[in-house]
Amino acid sequence: MNIVLLDPRQTESELWNISAKRQVEHLKTHVDVQVGDTLKVGIREGKRYLTQIVSITDNGIQLKPLQEEEVPAKHPVTLIVAMPRPKVLRRLIMDAVTLGVEKIILLHSYRVDKSYWQTPFLQQLDHYVTLGLEQAGDTIAPKIELYKRFKPFVEDVLPSMISSDYPAYVAHPYVEDVMPTGIQHGCTIIIGPEGGFIPYEVDLLIKNGCQAVSLGNRIIRTETVIPYVLGRLFSC
Amino acid sequence: MNIVLLDPRQTESELWNISAKRQVEHLKTHVDVQVGDTLKVGIREGKRYLTQIVSITDNGIQLKPLQEEEVPAKHPVTLIVAMPRPKVLRRLIMDAVTLGVEKIILLHSYRVDKSYWQTPFLQQLDHYVTLGLEQAGDTIAPKIELYKRFKPFVEDVLPSMISSDYPAYVAHPYVEDVMPTGIQHGCTIIIGPEGGFIPYEVDLLIKNGCQAVSLGNRIIRTETVIPYVLGRLFSC
Protein backbone atom coordinates (compact mmCIF):
# COMPACT_ATOMS: atom_id res chain seq x y z
CA MET A 1 0.00 0.00 0.00
CA ASN A 2 1.88 3.05 -1.25
CA ILE A 3 -1.14 5.34 -1.09
CA VAL A 4 -4.42 5.02 0.81
CA LEU A 5 -7.35 5.11 -1.59
CA LEU A 6 -10.46 6.89 -0.28
CA ASP A 7 -13.98 7.16 -1.59
CA PRO A 8 -14.83 10.76 -2.58
CA ARG A 9 -17.48 10.76 0.18
CA GLN A 10 -14.73 10.27 2.77
CA THR A 11 -13.13 13.55 1.70
CA GLU A 12 -16.13 15.86 1.75
CA SER A 13 -15.56 17.47 5.16
CA GLU A 14 -12.56 19.57 6.10
CA LEU A 15 -10.91 16.60 7.84
CA TRP A 16 -10.82 13.34 5.88
CA ASN A 17 -11.36 10.01 7.60
CA ILE A 18 -9.81 6.62 6.87
CA SER A 19 -12.38 4.17 8.26
CA ALA A 20 -11.97 0.91 6.28
CA LYS A 21 -10.76 -1.83 8.63
CA ARG A 22 -8.20 -3.14 6.11
CA GLN A 23 -6.58 0.27 5.67
CA VAL A 24 -6.68 1.27 9.35
CA GLU A 25 -5.17 -2.03 10.47
CA HIS A 26 -2.43 -1.89 7.84
CA LEU A 27 -1.50 1.68 8.81
CA LYS A 28 -1.53 0.93 12.55
CA THR A 29 0.21 -2.46 12.42
CA HIS A 30 2.62 -2.31 9.48
CA VAL A 31 3.31 1.39 9.08
CA ASP A 32 2.88 2.30 12.77
CA VAL A 33 1.45 5.71 11.88
CA GLN A 34 1.48 8.53 14.46
CA VAL A 35 -0.29 11.88 14.71
CA GLY A 36 1.76 14.40 12.72
CA ASP A 37 3.00 11.86 10.13
CA THR A 38 2.42 12.60 6.47
CA LEU A 39 0.49 10.09 4.38
CA LYS A 40 -0.08 9.77 0.63
CA VAL A 41 -3.79 9.57 -0.14
CA GLY A 42 -5.70 9.16 -3.40
CA ILE A 43 -9.34 9.92 -4.04
CA ARG A 44 -10.88 7.17 -6.15
CA GLU A 45 -11.31 8.39 -9.74
CA GLY A 46 -9.86 11.72 -8.56
CA LYS A 47 -6.73 13.49 -7.39
CA ARG A 48 -3.84 12.46 -5.15
CA TYR A 49 -2.66 14.35 -2.09
CA LEU A 50 0.05 14.47 0.51
CA THR A 51 -1.86 14.63 3.80
CA GLN A 52 -1.03 14.89 7.48
CA ILE A 53 -2.49 12.76 10.25
CA VAL A 54 -4.41 14.98 12.66
CA SER A 55 -5.81 12.36 15.02
CA ILE A 56 -6.17 8.60 15.46
CA THR A 57 -9.46 7.55 17.06
CA ASP A 58 -11.68 4.48 17.37
CA ASN A 59 -13.51 5.75 14.27
CA GLY A 60 -10.38 5.67 12.16
CA ILE A 61 -7.55 7.97 11.14
CA GLN A 62 -8.27 11.66 10.49
CA LEU A 63 -6.27 13.63 7.94
CA LYS A 64 -5.91 17.08 6.50
CA PRO A 65 -4.70 17.51 2.90
CA LEU A 66 -1.39 19.38 2.57
CA GLN A 67 -0.73 19.49 -1.18
CA GLU A 68 -1.78 17.89 -4.42
CA GLU A 69 0.49 15.23 -5.97
CA GLU A 70 0.73 13.87 -9.49
CA VAL A 71 -1.33 10.80 -10.42
CA PRO A 72 0.87 8.52 -12.57
CA ALA A 73 -0.12 8.34 -16.25
CA LYS A 74 -1.51 5.10 -17.67
CA HIS A 75 -0.11 3.15 -20.62
CA PRO A 76 -2.45 3.49 -23.63
CA VAL A 77 -3.03 -0.23 -23.72
CA THR A 78 -5.94 -2.65 -23.73
CA LEU A 79 -5.11 -6.08 -22.35
CA ILE A 80 -7.23 -8.97 -23.61
CA VAL A 81 -6.54 -12.17 -21.68
CA ALA A 82 -8.06 -15.62 -21.98
CA MET A 83 -9.75 -16.14 -18.60
CA PRO A 84 -7.04 -17.61 -16.35
CA ARG A 85 -7.29 -19.88 -13.29
CA PRO A 86 -8.78 -18.00 -10.32
CA LYS A 87 -5.46 -17.73 -8.45
CA VAL A 88 -3.75 -16.34 -11.53
CA LEU A 89 -6.68 -13.99 -12.22
CA ARG A 90 -6.20 -12.24 -8.88
CA ARG A 91 -2.51 -11.55 -9.47
CA LEU A 92 -3.06 -10.67 -13.09
CA ILE A 93 -5.64 -8.00 -12.24
CA MET A 94 -3.45 -6.52 -9.51
CA ASP A 95 -0.36 -6.47 -11.73
CA ALA A 96 -2.15 -5.06 -14.77
CA VAL A 97 -3.61 -2.28 -12.60
CA THR A 98 -0.25 -1.59 -10.94
CA LEU A 99 1.47 -1.36 -14.31
CA GLY A 100 -1.08 1.15 -15.59
CA VAL A 101 -3.16 -0.79 -18.11
CA GLU A 102 -6.14 1.31 -19.25
CA LYS A 103 -8.59 -1.45 -20.03
CA ILE A 104 -8.73 -5.20 -19.28
CA ILE A 105 -10.89 -7.68 -21.16
CA LEU A 106 -11.34 -11.25 -19.90
CA LEU A 107 -12.25 -13.53 -22.78
CA HIS A 108 -13.35 -17.12 -23.13
CA SER A 109 -11.28 -19.45 -25.30
CA TYR A 110 -11.35 -23.15 -26.19
CA ARG A 111 -8.69 -24.12 -23.63
CA VAL A 112 -10.30 -22.08 -20.80
CA ASP A 113 -11.99 -24.36 -18.26
CA LYS A 114 -15.65 -23.26 -18.09
CA SER A 115 -15.54 -23.46 -14.28
CA TYR A 116 -13.18 -20.47 -14.23
CA TRP A 117 -16.18 -18.23 -14.98
CA GLN A 118 -17.81 -19.35 -11.72
CA THR A 119 -15.00 -18.19 -9.43
CA PRO A 120 -16.04 -15.90 -6.55
CA PHE A 121 -12.98 -13.75 -7.43
CA LEU A 122 -15.02 -12.30 -10.28
CA GLN A 123 -17.28 -10.71 -7.67
CA GLN A 124 -14.22 -9.28 -5.91
CA LEU A 125 -12.43 -7.76 -8.89
CA ASP A 126 -12.93 -4.29 -7.47
CA HIS A 127 -11.00 -5.27 -4.34
CA TYR A 128 -8.00 -6.40 -6.40
CA VAL A 129 -8.23 -3.27 -8.53
CA THR A 130 -8.05 -1.22 -5.31
CA LEU A 131 -4.99 -3.16 -4.12
CA GLY A 132 -3.31 -2.61 -7.49
CA LEU A 133 -4.05 1.12 -7.44
CA GLU A 134 -2.79 1.45 -3.85
CA GLN A 135 0.40 -0.38 -4.84
CA ALA A 136 1.05 1.84 -7.86
CA GLY A 137 -0.02 5.14 -6.28
CA ASP A 138 -2.76 5.46 -8.90
CA THR A 139 -6.39 6.54 -8.38
CA ILE A 140 -8.12 5.70 -11.67
CA ALA A 141 -9.46 2.15 -12.06
CA PRO A 142 -9.13 0.55 -15.50
CA LYS A 143 -12.28 -0.55 -17.27
CA ILE A 144 -12.82 -4.31 -17.00
CA GLU A 145 -15.09 -6.19 -19.40
CA LEU A 146 -15.97 -9.89 -19.62
CA TYR A 147 -16.81 -11.74 -22.83
CA LYS A 148 -17.88 -15.34 -22.37
CA ARG A 149 -18.09 -16.09 -26.09
CA PHE A 150 -14.95 -15.93 -28.21
CA LYS A 151 -16.30 -15.72 -31.75
CA PRO A 152 -18.89 -12.93 -31.29
CA PHE A 153 -16.30 -10.86 -29.43
CA VAL A 154 -13.60 -11.32 -32.06
CA GLU A 155 -15.93 -10.75 -35.01
CA ASP A 156 -18.24 -8.05 -33.67
CA VAL A 157 -16.37 -6.12 -30.95
CA LEU A 158 -12.63 -6.44 -31.55
CA PRO A 159 -12.41 -4.97 -35.10
CA SER A 160 -13.80 -1.61 -33.94
CA MET A 161 -11.01 -1.41 -31.33
CA ILE A 162 -8.22 -1.79 -33.92
CA SER A 163 -6.77 1.01 -36.07
CA SER A 164 -3.43 1.81 -37.70
CA ASP A 165 -2.31 3.77 -34.62
CA TYR A 166 -3.88 1.31 -32.19
CA PRO A 167 -2.92 -2.15 -33.51
CA ALA A 168 -3.67 -5.45 -31.78
CA TYR A 169 -0.87 -7.94 -31.11
CA VAL A 170 -1.53 -11.61 -30.34
CA ALA A 171 1.39 -13.20 -28.49
CA HIS A 172 1.97 -16.42 -30.39
CA PRO A 173 5.00 -18.71 -30.57
CA TYR A 174 6.41 -20.00 -33.83
CA VAL A 175 5.69 -16.93 -35.98
CA GLU A 176 8.39 -14.89 -37.66
CA ASP A 177 7.25 -11.38 -36.70
CA VAL A 178 8.38 -10.36 -33.25
CA MET A 179 6.51 -8.28 -30.66
CA PRO A 180 7.51 -4.63 -31.29
CA THR A 181 9.52 -2.60 -28.78
CA GLY A 182 9.40 0.98 -27.57
CA ILE A 183 6.20 1.92 -29.40
CA GLN A 184 4.90 5.49 -29.27
CA HIS A 185 1.22 4.71 -29.78
CA GLY A 186 -1.49 2.76 -28.02
CA CYS A 187 -2.21 -0.90 -28.69
CA THR A 188 -4.15 -3.99 -27.69
CA ILE A 189 -2.26 -7.02 -26.39
CA ILE A 190 -3.95 -10.42 -26.60
CA ILE A 191 -2.68 -13.24 -24.38
CA GLY A 192 -3.94 -16.80 -24.79
CA PRO A 193 -4.72 -19.41 -22.13
CA GLU A 194 -2.35 -22.04 -20.71
CA GLY A 195 -1.62 -24.24 -23.71
CA GLY A 196 -2.28 -21.34 -26.08
CA PHE A 197 -5.10 -20.40 -28.43
CA ILE A 198 -6.13 -23.20 -30.80
CA PRO A 199 -5.26 -22.65 -34.49
CA TYR A 200 -8.90 -21.77 -35.30
CA GLU A 201 -8.81 -18.98 -32.72
CA VAL A 202 -5.48 -17.58 -33.92
CA ASP A 203 -6.77 -17.62 -37.49
CA LEU A 204 -9.97 -15.82 -36.48
CA LEU A 205 -7.99 -13.17 -34.58
CA ILE A 206 -5.73 -12.57 -37.58
CA LYS A 207 -8.71 -12.50 -39.96
CA ASN A 208 -10.22 -9.78 -37.78
CA GLY A 209 -7.21 -7.48 -37.83
CA CYS A 210 -4.75 -8.80 -35.23
CA GLN A 211 -1.02 -9.31 -35.81
CA ALA A 212 0.49 -12.56 -34.50
CA VAL A 213 3.89 -11.78 -32.97
CA SER A 214 6.44 -13.91 -31.17
CA LEU A 215 8.18 -13.21 -27.87
CA GLY A 216 11.12 -15.52 -28.57
CA ASN A 217 11.54 -19.20 -27.88
CA ARG A 218 10.92 -19.23 -24.12
CA ILE A 219 7.40 -20.11 -23.04
CA ILE A 220 6.33 -17.68 -20.32
CA ARG A 221 3.35 -17.99 -17.98
CA THR A 222 0.39 -15.62 -18.41
CA GLU A 223 1.01 -13.70 -15.18
CA THR A 224 4.69 -13.25 -16.04
CA VAL A 225 4.27 -12.40 -19.69
CA ILE A 226 2.11 -9.34 -18.96
CA PRO A 227 4.78 -7.23 -17.18
CA TYR A 228 7.37 -8.61 -19.63
CA VAL A 229 5.38 -7.41 -22.66
CA LEU A 230 4.49 -4.05 -21.09
CA GLY A 231 8.15 -3.39 -20.25
CA ARG A 232 9.06 -4.23 -23.82
CA LEU A 233 6.32 -2.25 -25.60
CA PHE A 234 6.59 0.93 -23.55
CA SER A 235 10.33 1.04 -23.10
CA CYS A 236 10.80 4.49 -24.54
CA MET B 1 5.70 -28.07 -18.01
CA ASN B 2 6.68 -27.44 -21.63
CA ILE B 3 9.59 -29.88 -21.57
CA VAL B 4 10.37 -32.78 -19.24
CA LEU B 5 13.75 -32.27 -17.61
CA LEU B 6 15.76 -35.47 -17.05
CA ASP B 7 18.94 -36.16 -15.16
CA PRO B 8 21.78 -37.22 -17.51
CA ARG B 9 21.78 -40.62 -15.77
CA GLN B 10 18.22 -41.21 -16.98
CA THR B 11 19.37 -40.92 -20.59
CA GLU B 12 22.34 -43.29 -20.58
CA SER B 13 20.66 -46.37 -22.06
CA GLU B 14 19.14 -46.55 -25.50
CA LEU B 15 15.63 -45.98 -24.12
CA TRP B 16 15.24 -43.09 -21.69
CA ASN B 17 12.97 -43.37 -18.66
CA ILE B 18 10.84 -40.70 -16.95
CA SER B 19 10.49 -42.02 -13.40
CA ALA B 20 9.92 -38.95 -11.16
CA LYS B 21 6.42 -39.16 -9.66
CA ARG B 22 5.70 -35.45 -10.29
CA GLN B 23 6.55 -35.72 -13.99
CA VAL B 24 4.84 -39.08 -14.58
CA GLU B 25 1.64 -37.91 -12.86
CA HIS B 26 1.58 -34.63 -14.77
CA LEU B 27 2.05 -36.39 -18.09
CA LYS B 28 -0.57 -39.06 -17.35
CA THR B 29 -3.18 -36.78 -15.76
CA HIS B 30 -2.83 -33.39 -17.47
CA VAL B 31 -1.29 -34.27 -20.83
CA ASP B 32 -2.87 -37.75 -21.13
CA VAL B 33 0.19 -39.08 -22.98
CA GLN B 34 -0.09 -42.22 -25.11
CA VAL B 35 2.45 -44.58 -26.66
CA GLY B 36 3.54 -43.07 -29.98
CA ASP B 37 3.15 -39.42 -28.83
CA THR B 38 6.10 -37.10 -29.20
CA LEU B 39 7.43 -35.35 -26.12
CA LYS B 40 9.93 -32.52 -25.65
CA VAL B 41 12.68 -33.53 -23.24
CA GLY B 42 15.69 -31.69 -21.88
CA ILE B 43 18.77 -33.18 -20.27
CA ARG B 44 19.76 -31.14 -17.25
CA GLU B 45 22.79 -28.98 -18.10
CA GLY B 46 22.70 -30.55 -21.55
CA LYS B 47 20.82 -30.73 -24.83
CA ARG B 48 17.13 -30.77 -25.70
CA TYR B 49 15.39 -33.40 -27.81
CA LEU B 50 12.12 -34.24 -29.43
CA THR B 51 11.41 -37.79 -28.27
CA GLN B 52 8.76 -40.41 -28.85
CA ILE B 53 6.99 -42.43 -26.16
CA VAL B 54 7.79 -46.11 -26.64
CA SER B 55 5.99 -47.59 -23.63
CA ILE B 56 4.20 -46.60 -20.44
CA THR B 57 4.82 -48.96 -17.51
CA ASP B 58 4.60 -49.01 -13.72
CA ASN B 59 8.26 -47.91 -13.72
CA GLY B 60 7.52 -44.76 -15.67
CA ILE B 61 7.43 -43.57 -19.25
CA GLN B 62 10.00 -44.86 -21.73
CA LEU B 63 11.22 -42.73 -24.62
CA LYS B 64 13.49 -42.78 -27.61
CA PRO B 65 15.10 -39.55 -28.83
CA LEU B 66 14.07 -38.50 -32.36
CA GLN B 67 16.00 -35.29 -33.00
CA GLU B 68 17.91 -32.55 -31.21
CA GLU B 69 16.15 -29.21 -30.57
CA GLU B 70 17.52 -25.77 -29.77
CA VAL B 71 17.96 -24.77 -26.11
CA PRO B 72 16.80 -21.13 -25.75
CA ALA B 73 19.61 -18.62 -25.15
CA LYS B 74 19.87 -16.88 -21.79
CA HIS B 75 19.85 -13.11 -21.20
CA PRO B 76 23.35 -11.95 -20.17
CA VAL B 77 22.04 -10.66 -16.87
CA THR B 78 22.77 -11.05 -13.16
CA LEU B 79 19.79 -10.39 -10.93
CA ILE B 80 20.57 -9.22 -7.40
CA VAL B 81 17.45 -9.14 -5.21
CA ALA B 82 17.00 -8.24 -1.58
CA MET B 83 15.78 -11.49 0.01
CA PRO B 84 11.98 -11.43 -0.40
CA ARG B 85 9.20 -13.04 1.64
CA PRO B 86 9.20 -16.84 1.18
CA LYS B 87 6.07 -16.87 -0.99
CA VAL B 88 7.51 -14.20 -3.26
CA LEU B 89 10.90 -15.96 -3.34
CA ARG B 90 9.37 -19.07 -4.88
CA ARG B 91 7.69 -17.17 -7.72
CA LEU B 92 10.67 -14.91 -8.23
CA ILE B 93 13.04 -17.84 -8.71
CA MET B 94 10.67 -19.57 -11.12
CA ASP B 95 10.08 -16.39 -13.14
CA ALA B 96 13.74 -15.39 -13.26
CA VAL B 97 14.63 -18.89 -14.48
CA THR B 98 11.79 -18.92 -17.03
CA LEU B 99 12.87 -15.55 -18.39
CA GLY B 100 16.47 -16.73 -18.85
CA VAL B 101 18.43 -14.93 -16.13
CA GLU B 102 22.00 -16.25 -16.02
CA LYS B 103 22.76 -15.68 -12.36
CA ILE B 104 20.63 -14.84 -9.29
CA ILE B 105 22.01 -13.38 -6.08
CA LEU B 106 19.85 -13.16 -2.93
CA LEU B 107 21.14 -10.40 -0.67
CA HIS B 108 20.38 -9.19 2.82
CA SER B 109 19.31 -5.59 3.31
CA TYR B 110 18.16 -3.45 6.24
CA ARG B 111 14.46 -3.85 5.47
CA VAL B 112 14.69 -7.64 4.95
CA ASP B 113 13.16 -9.52 7.88
CA LYS B 114 15.90 -11.80 9.26
CA SER B 115 13.41 -14.68 9.50
CA TYR B 116 13.27 -14.81 5.69
CA TRP B 117 16.68 -16.51 5.72
CA GLN B 118 15.22 -19.40 7.72
CA THR B 119 12.56 -20.35 5.17
CA PRO B 120 12.53 -24.03 4.12
CA PHE B 121 12.10 -22.77 0.52
CA LEU B 122 15.83 -22.03 0.50
CA GLN B 123 16.42 -25.80 0.72
CA GLN B 124 14.04 -26.32 -2.21
CA LEU B 125 15.43 -23.74 -4.62
CA ASP B 126 16.52 -26.47 -6.99
CA HIS B 127 12.91 -27.66 -7.28
CA TYR B 128 11.73 -24.19 -8.32
CA VAL B 129 14.64 -23.87 -10.73
CA THR B 130 13.51 -27.14 -12.33
CA LEU B 131 9.92 -25.88 -12.63
CA GLY B 132 11.17 -22.65 -14.22
CA LEU B 133 13.35 -24.53 -16.71
CA GLU B 134 10.51 -26.91 -17.61
CA GLN B 135 8.20 -23.92 -18.16
CA ALA B 136 10.69 -22.11 -20.43
CA GLY B 137 11.94 -25.16 -22.30
CA ASP B 138 15.46 -24.52 -20.98
CA THR B 139 17.95 -27.04 -19.59
CA ILE B 140 20.67 -24.91 -17.99
CA ALA B 141 20.11 -23.81 -14.37
CA PRO B 142 21.25 -20.30 -13.45
CA LYS B 143 23.85 -19.93 -10.71
CA ILE B 144 22.25 -18.90 -7.40
CA GLU B 145 24.30 -17.33 -4.62
CA LEU B 146 23.27 -16.09 -1.15
CA TYR B 147 24.92 -13.20 0.70
CA LYS B 148 23.63 -12.64 4.23
CA ARG B 149 25.70 -9.48 4.80
CA PHE B 150 25.06 -6.40 2.67
CA LYS B 151 28.20 -4.33 3.21
CA PRO B 152 30.86 -7.00 2.61
CA PHE B 153 29.03 -8.10 -0.55
CA VAL B 154 28.71 -4.58 -1.95
CA GLU B 155 32.28 -3.57 -1.07
CA ASP B 156 34.20 -6.78 -1.75
CA VAL B 157 32.22 -8.81 -4.30
CA LEU B 158 30.06 -6.48 -6.37
CA PRO B 159 32.78 -4.16 -7.81
CA SER B 160 34.51 -7.06 -9.56
CA MET B 161 31.23 -7.90 -11.33
CA ILE B 162 30.86 -4.40 -12.83
CA SER B 163 32.55 -3.15 -16.00
CA SER B 164 31.80 -0.63 -18.75
CA ASP B 165 30.13 -3.33 -20.84
CA TYR B 166 28.48 -5.01 -17.86
CA PRO B 167 27.07 -2.12 -15.78
CA ALA B 168 24.94 -2.52 -12.64
CA TYR B 169 21.58 -0.74 -12.37
CA VAL B 170 19.82 -0.20 -9.04
CA ALA B 171 16.09 0.32 -9.51
CA HIS B 172 15.37 3.38 -7.38
CA PRO B 173 12.47 5.83 -7.43
CA TYR B 174 12.98 9.59 -7.38
CA VAL B 175 16.18 9.72 -9.45
CA GLU B 176 16.44 11.50 -12.80
CA ASP B 177 18.23 8.81 -14.82
CA VAL B 178 15.88 6.20 -16.20
CA MET B 179 16.46 2.47 -16.61
CA PRO B 180 17.91 1.98 -20.12
CA THR B 181 16.03 0.12 -22.86
CA GLY B 182 17.04 -2.32 -25.56
CA ILE B 183 20.65 -2.74 -24.42
CA GLN B 184 23.07 -4.87 -26.46
CA HIS B 185 25.36 -5.88 -23.60
CA GLY B 186 25.09 -7.74 -20.32
CA CYS B 187 24.25 -6.09 -17.02
CA THR B 188 23.43 -6.55 -13.36
CA ILE B 189 20.00 -5.48 -12.08
CA ILE B 190 19.64 -4.76 -8.37
CA ILE B 191 16.15 -4.80 -6.83
CA GLY B 192 15.53 -3.63 -3.27
CA PRO B 193 13.19 -5.07 -0.63
CA GLU B 194 9.58 -4.04 0.05
CA GLY B 195 9.92 -0.45 1.24
CA GLY B 196 13.16 -0.04 -0.74
CA PHE B 197 16.83 0.14 0.16
CA ILE B 198 17.62 2.64 2.90
CA PRO B 199 19.60 5.75 1.79
CA TYR B 200 22.84 4.34 3.30
CA GLU B 201 22.49 1.22 1.15
CA VAL B 202 21.75 3.17 -2.05
CA ASP B 203 24.75 5.41 -1.37
CA LEU B 204 27.00 2.39 -0.78
CA LEU B 205 25.79 0.76 -4.02
CA ILE B 206 26.48 3.96 -6.00
CA LYS B 207 29.88 4.41 -4.33
CA ASN B 208 30.77 0.89 -5.45
CA GLY B 209 29.96 1.43 -9.10
CA CYS B 210 26.19 1.05 -9.47
CA GLN B 211 23.91 3.45 -11.37
CA ALA B 212 20.64 4.42 -9.68
CA VAL B 213 17.90 4.47 -12.31
CA SER B 214 14.17 5.07 -12.14
CA LEU B 215 11.36 3.00 -13.63
CA GLY B 216 8.85 5.84 -13.62
CA ASN B 217 6.43 6.96 -10.95
CA ARG B 218 4.52 3.72 -10.42
CA ILE B 219 5.69 1.57 -7.53
CA ILE B 220 5.84 -2.05 -8.70
CA ARG B 221 6.16 -5.15 -6.56
CA THR B 222 9.42 -7.14 -6.62
CA GLU B 223 7.95 -10.15 -8.39
CA THR B 224 6.33 -7.95 -11.04
CA VAL B 225 9.24 -5.60 -11.58
CA ILE B 226 11.59 -8.41 -12.65
CA PRO B 227 9.78 -9.41 -15.88
CA TYR B 228 8.99 -5.71 -16.47
CA VAL B 229 12.67 -4.72 -16.31
CA LEU B 230 13.85 -7.71 -18.36
CA GLY B 231 11.29 -6.93 -21.08
CA ARG B 232 12.52 -3.36 -21.12
CA LEU B 233 16.28 -4.02 -21.07
CA PHE B 234 16.36 -6.78 -23.65
CA SER B 235 13.74 -5.44 -26.02
CA CYS B 236 15.95 -5.45 -29.09
From TrEMBL, chains A, B:
One GO CC annotation: cytoplasm
Any GO MF annotation of the entry: rRNA (uridine-N3-)-methyltransferase activity
Predominant location category: cytoplasm
Listed GO biological process terms: rRNA base methylation
Segments forming domain Ribosomal RNA small subunit methyltransferase E methyltransferase: 74-231
Location within or outside the cell: Cytoplasm
Alphabetized SUPFAM superfamilies for the sequence: alpha/beta knot
EC code: 2.1.1.193
Record-given protein name: Ribosomal RNA small subunit methyltransferase E
Organism field: Acinetobacter amyesii
